Amino acid sequence: LASQRERLVAAVAPLAARTGAETTLVFDGAGITGVPTHSVRGVRVLFSDPGVLADDLIRSLVGAEPAGRPLVVVTSDRAVVESVRRAGAHPVPSSVLLHRLARI
Questions:
Q1: What phi-psi label fits residue 68: left (phi over 0), alpha (psi between -120 and 50 degrees) or beta?
Q2: Tens digits of per-residue pLDDT, 72-98?
Q3: Per the confidence metrics, is the pTM higher than 0.85?
Q4: Between residues 92 and 3, which one has the greater pLDDT?
């Protein structure tokens, strides 16, 4: 699982660099004994606290953003899609990100 997270971070980095978009990847923190220290420029990596779902951390991050700020959330989780949409974010299916990454 750790290597899959690292691959995703590495894959997203060129897209973040090219677009200049602030990019945050959120992972479930369950089972994480230590937060990885490896970072990639332009990509912030967050882990949810033990007992907190990454989905809830995503909702919290979206809710903390100023109203009207353009915000894209990549997820295929229907409940997250609906809640972030209600909060003013633009949900995008994970498949769209994967397709975009394949073209880089």
A1: left
A2: 999 999 999 999 999 999 999 999 999
A3: yes
A4: 92
